[in-house]
Specification:
By secondary structure, this protein is of the alpha/beta class. The chain has helices at about 20-30, 40-55, 70-85, 110-135, 160-180, 200, 205-215, 225-235; strands spanning about 10-15, 35-40, 60-65, 90-95, 140-145, 185-190, 245-250. The protein has a single domain (about 10-95, about 120-150, about 160-250), classed as 3-Layer(aba) Sandwich (Rossmann fold).
Length: about 250
C-alpha cells in the first residue's frame, strides 16, 4: 500500500480555481485522484480543469461551477459529480468569504451573515449531501480548510475568525458522528498564505513585516505548502486521523 496514493478516488474541491484550492486540486490529481474543480465562474473552472488535464492526462479533472451560498447549486455540484464520475471519496470544503476588514463594531449585519452562511452553513450543507454515500461505503475523508484565525483573536478579521473556529467545531462534531462509519472529518488551519483571498493582509507592508518577524520561518506561506496536508488527510497516510485541526503556519501559533 502506498500511503499517499489517491488513485481511483474522486475528490471534490470547492474554491479550486486559484490559491489554496487550486493547489490542493493539482496535488491530488498528481497523486492519482480524479478532481472536481468548482467555483462561481464557469470560465475560471474550465481553465483550471484544462490545465490539470494537460498536466496529468485527459479526464483527470472536470469542472462544475457552483456558488456556495446556494443550496441548489451545491446539490447540483454533487449530482453532476456523481453523474460524471460515479462517486465522491474526498470532499474539500475550501471556498469561503470575508467581505469585511476592520473592527468588529463596524461590520454590517449583512456582511456578518454572509461570512457565517458561506463559511459554516454552506459547509454543513455540502457535507450533508456527500456524507451518506461515504457512510454507506464505510470510507471517506472530509476536509475543511479553516484558519489559524480560528485559534486566536484578530482586530481586523474578527467575524472571519469566529467562522473558522466554528469550522473546527463542526469537524469535531462530525468526526464523532461519522467515526463509527469509518468516515473521517478534519480541518487544515493555514497561517498567512500568499493568495488573492488574503491580499488585504499581505499587501499591508507594515503588517507583513510584523507578521514575518513573529513567524519562526520568517516568511508567509505559499498555496502549494498547504496542499500536502490535504493529500495526507485524504489518503491512507491519514487513516487514523479524525476531528483534528492540522496547523500549517510556519510556526506562528507556537
Amino acid at each position: 500500500m502506498q500511503l499517499f496514493n489517491l488513485a481511483g478516488q474522486v475528490a471534490l474541491i470547492t474554491g479550486s480555481t486559484r490559491g489554496i484550492g487550486l493547489a490542493i486540486a493539482e496535488r491530488m490529481a498528481e497523486h492519482g485522484a480524479q478532481v472536481v474543480i468548482s467555483s462561481r465562474k464557469a470560465p475560471a473552472c474550465e481553465a483550471a480543469r484544462d490545465a490539470i488535464n494537460a498536466r496529468f492526462g485527459a479526464g483527470r479533472a472536470i469542472a462544475v461551477p457552483a456558488n456556495i451560498s446556494s443550496k441548489a447549486d451545491l446539490q447540483n455540484l454533487v449530482d453532476q459529480t456523481r453523474q460524471s464520475l460515479g462517486r465522491i471519496d474526498v470532499l474539500v470544503c475550501n471556498a469561503a468569504s470575508n467581505p469585511y476588514y476592520g473592527p468588529q463594531a463596524g461590520i454590517a449585519d449583512e456582511q456578518f451573515r454572509k461570512i457565517l452562511d458561506n463559511n459554516i452553513i454552506a459547509n454543513h450543507w455540502l457535507i450533508g449531501m456527500v456524507a451518506p454515500e461515504m457512510i454507506e461505503r464505510r470510507k471517506g475523508s472530509i476536509i475543511i480548510v479553516s484558519s489559524i484565525g480560528g485559534l486566536r483573536g484578530s482586530s481586523v478579521i474578527g467575524a472571519y475568525c469566529i467562522s473558522k473556529a466554528a469550522d473546527m467545531q463542526l469537524a469535531r462534531n462530525l468526526a464523532v458522528e461519522y467515526g463509527p462509519h469509518n468516515v473521517r472529518v478534519n480541518c487544515i488551519a493555514p497561517g498567512l498564505v500568499k493568495t488573492d483571498f488574503a491580499r488585504a493582509l499581505w499587501e499591508d507592508e507594515a503588517r507583513l513585516a510584523q507578521q514575518m518577524q513573529t513567524t519562526p520561518l520568517r516568511r508567509i506561506g505559499q498555496p502549494d505548502e498547504i496542499a500536502g496536508a490535504a493529500v495526507f488527510l485524504a489518503s491512507d497516510a491519514g487513516a487514523y486521523v479524525t476531528g483534528q485541526s492540522l496547523v500549517v503556519d510556519g510556526g506562528v501559533t507556537i
